[in-house]
């Protein structure tokens, strides 16, 4: 967990740059003898003009002007929520950042955000004086036009398989054919299945509510309510007065009445799989040939075994490829329209690597999600429209508040409780109009 916190601080610093003035905040060095004492000390707040690392919003003059206007509006809303609140026990520092751009199908929007990082006061036992900790665990963020799938997790994990059980494991790209144009095609013309989103992939790092993942999915997809990921403390544990919880809360703010994602039909899934089979075939042949080439004239026993396995895969794969195509084409030709138009809920056992067992599961659909059963979605074209030259325009927002509940340090929960009661989140929604 500590590595994650250090990483967060480094990332914020690297994104920011150093264009704005930086105001150094020194340790209060107030005499203290306990955590309770430092938690009650007057807090320090600095706006975006005095960030810890400085920042630079990259973009065209029009983009920068629009981003600054929106980010300052968020900053003012947060400050207004604390007009009757006394900040204690911490340093709260605001920064702005531009994280690049988000591609929603072929529509590209600027991805930028507001962040308030909160650093606790601690009592240095050797000096008996208050210090500011180096790492923050409480943060409030508003991310404009965020990534739907952080980390690019694919909903359909078809690119990892053994042609024969026990033979080499192939881990091939599913987005495009490998070769000199791979990176270009991956960005500009990715496969349709690589753009699928599932409830599970949407919930990555956003919710650990395994008892109602579907309910949390609907909250994000429709922009109603919030979801939480319990980083420490256990969502379903019994929490006493001395227990500790660290909770990450998320909201999606969206335009009313239009979901972000819509289901993939069985027909569309089958058609998209036909496209993918050609990518898989090309990438298997590419990877298989590269592995054989790498063995070269090596006559060691292990090299001979690997070469024999690779040659066997080369002979066996075409039969699997043809069988998959035939199975999908047969379903498309023989199934009734009402069956084909139902949502695609498919086998998604990512532990399943054997190509023949994957073939056996192909075309098997279910009525609802469950263990190893995955409902598939794509971006809703009615929501993700062209920016009409206004790339910094807010299309939707992700709001995050990560906070701590602990007996000794109350600054985090006090700040969060005040935010929950007094922050005007509806004013953020109006920015989407």
Please characterize this protein's 3D structure:
By secondary structure, this protein is an alpha+beta fold. The chain folds into two domains: 217 residues, no CATH class; 153 residues, no CATH class. It is built from twelve helices and 14 strands. Strands 1, 2, 3, 4, 5, 9, 10 and 14 form an eight-stranded mixed beta sheet that branches. Strands 8, 11, 12 and 13 form a four-stranded antiparallel beta sheet that branches. The chain has a two-stranded antiparallel sheet with strand order 6-7. A hairpin with a 6-residue loop joins β6 and β7. It is elongated. The two termini are 39 Å apart. The N terminus is likely disordered.
Descriptive keywords:
433 residues; alpha+beta; 8-stranded mixed beta sheet; 4-stranded antiparallel beta sheet; 12 helices; 14 strands
The proportion of residues forming helix, as a percent range, comes to 25-40%
Major sheet: 8 strands, mixed
Principal-axes shape call = elongated
Q: Which range does the strand content fall in?
A: 15-25%
Using only C-alpha atoms, the radius of gyration works out to 26 Å
Per DSSP E runs of 2 or more residues, the count of β-strands stands at 14
Unreliable segments of 5+ consecutive residues: 1-21
Element string (H = helix, E = strand): HHEHEEEEEEHEHHEEEHHHEHEEHH
Number of helices: 12
Look at the structure and give the mean pLDDT.
90
**What is the CA-CA span between the terminal residues?**
39 Å
* Derived structural class: alpha+beta
Count of discrete structural domains: 2
């Amino acid at each position: 967990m500590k590595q994650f916190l250090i990483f967060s601080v480094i990332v914020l610093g690297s994104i920011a740059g150093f264009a704005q003035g930086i105001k150094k905040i020194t340790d209060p060095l107030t005499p203290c003898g306990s955590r309770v004492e430092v938690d009650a000390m007057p807090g320090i707040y600095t706006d975006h003009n005095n960030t810890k690392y400085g920042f630079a919003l990259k973009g065209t003059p029009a983009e920068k002007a629009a981003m600054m206007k929106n980010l300052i509006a968020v900053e003012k809303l947060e400050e207004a929520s604390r007009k009757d609140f006394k900040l204690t026990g911490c340093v709260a520092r605001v920064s702005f950042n531009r994280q690049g751009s988000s591609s929603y199908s072929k529509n590209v929007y600027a991805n930028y955000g507001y962040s308030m990082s909160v650093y606790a006061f601690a009592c240095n036992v050797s000096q008996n004086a208050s210090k500011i900790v180096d790492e923050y665990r409480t943060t409030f963020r508003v991310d404009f036009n965020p990534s739907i799938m952080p980390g690019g997790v694919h909903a359909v994990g078809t690119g990892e398989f053994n042609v024969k059980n026990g033979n080499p494991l192939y881990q091939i790209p599913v987005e495009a054919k490998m070769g000199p144009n791979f990176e270009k095609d991956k960005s500009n013309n990715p496969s349709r299945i690589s753009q699928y989103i599932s409830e599970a992939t949407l919930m990555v790092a956003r919710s650990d509510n395994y008892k109602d993942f579907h309910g949390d999915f609907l909250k994000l997809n429709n922009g109603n309510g919030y979801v939480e990921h319990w980083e420490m403390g256990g969502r379903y544990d019994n929490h006493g007065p001395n227990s500790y919880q660290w909770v990450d809360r998320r909201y999606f703010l969206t335009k009313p009445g239009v979901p972000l994602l819509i289901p993939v039909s069985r027909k569309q899934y089958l058609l998209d799989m036909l496209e993918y089979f050609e990518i898989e075939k090309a990438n298997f042949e590419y990877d298989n040939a590269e592995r054989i080439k790498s063995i070269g004239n090596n006559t060691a026993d292990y090299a001979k075994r690997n070469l024999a396995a690779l040659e066997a895969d080369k002979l066996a794969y075409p039969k699997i490829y043809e069988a998959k195509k035939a199975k999908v084409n047969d379903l498309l030709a023989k199934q009734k329209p009402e069956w084909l138009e139902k949502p695609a809920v498919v086998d998604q056992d990512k532990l399943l690597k054997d190509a023949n067992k994957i073939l056996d599961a192909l075309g098997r659909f279910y009525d609802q999600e469950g263990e190893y059963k995955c409902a598939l979605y794509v971006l809703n074209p009615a929501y993700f429209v062209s920016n009409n030259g206004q790339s910094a325009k807010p299309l939707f927002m992700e709001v995050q508040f990560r906070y701590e509940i602990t007996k000794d340090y109350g600054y985090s929960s006090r700040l969060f409780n005040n935010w929950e009661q007094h922050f005007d989140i509806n004013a953020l929604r109006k920015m989407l109009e």
